[in-house]
Amino acid sequence: MPDQPEQPDQPEQELATVTLEDIQAARPLVEEVALRTPMVESRWLTTVAGYPVHLKCENLQRTGSFKVRGSAVRIARLSEAERAGGVVAASAGNHAQGVALAAQQHGIPATVFMPEGAPIPKERATRGYGAEVRFRKGTLEDCLAAATEFAEETGAVLIHPFDNCDIVSGQGTLGLEVVEQVPDAATVMVPTGGGGLLGGVAIAVKSLRPDVRLVGVQAAGAAAFPPSLAEGRPLRLPQMATMADGIAVGRPGELTFRLVKEYVDDLITVSEEDLSRALLALAEREKLVVEPAGAAAAAALAVEPDRFTGPVVVVLSGGNIDPLLLGKVIRHGMAAARRYLNLQVTLPDVPGGLMRMLAEVAAAGANVMEVAHERISPSLLLDEVDVHLQLETRGEPHAEAVIDRLREHGYKVVDRG
User: Fold this and answer.
1) Which structural domain range is residue 240 located in?
2) Which residues pair with 217 in a beta bridge?
3) Do residues 90 and 22 share a domain?
4) Are residues 34 and 175 in the same domain?
5) Angle, to 10 degrees, between the axis of helix 196-208 and the axis of helix 254-263?
6) Which of 43-57, 78-92, 172-186, 340-354 is the least confident region?
7) Does 294 lie in the same domain as 250?
């Protein structure tokens, strides 16, 4: 984050807070724009965990994410004078769409600064809601600095992506729905970037059900909360690297940091491989399209189900994913889950040798995707050949069974991952 104030009214916000009453008061404003999203039981995660797991499907929300909730409240409460100057926001895509839709509903001009390379569907959807999109090099924090400067120069109101009481109150309405839809929930898990959603949900849930455990989940490559909580103040990450652009925030907000510190029980991280596996499973097992950021909580539960107590509510915070990225992530997830198997198999260089080896692969039930020969290598004997295989399997146990079968039949096998 820049060292300067993150929004014009930041000094007044330093001691501000959000209450259950604020969230309840925000609900009618949210309902004018956003949907009450469905809660469905996850057969996949319930099987993995051994206790009931429910999915709060904000990926099915208008604009494809929870962000429209906070934007609806913030923009609805602007004065006539503030509306006349328009609004400005900084976003990798989800907040942009929420601001654009809410501004459109009220007839307010909107400008959004997005990082270069932001997902094309998010950019097009933002423009489709009537907002002007301007690109900036760098991270979300660089875009936020540009948006702050734009607000100072033009008089537009900065709609901060997370560090604002109205924004947090709007996001907190999701927590009200969670308590109503799963009244016996023991744990609620929330994907986390800047902390607006986590803070709002935590206030709502803890105020109504103090016994419920609140867990925030961040991508390991963009996890600003753990070091900040350890230090006792918001810290800026020196760098970030994650496909989960929706939760790639380099520094918690002042308001959201205090709310997370006060109301949240645990903050954990997940790897890129965990995110890939979860996204693949949600698409394949639950028939739900979810972006990497939106799958973070599901990934955490799938990795360590014994760490939590059920029933669990997993928030799927968004579903705006570029189709090209979706294809890459699914392939990455399949590789991480050993659905793809890359082998180097050494066999006798004799007529019919390749056919006999491939017959064993077929008998093991694997599908051959690619075959390549290598006859020249210092590690090979004169009468040997290396065959590089890319196979499709049914997962880890099946992959090991394929390798075992080849070795049992005398082939030297190296697993290339």
Assistant:
1) 17-65+167-334
2) 191, 268
3) no
4) yes
5) 40
6) 340-354
7) yes
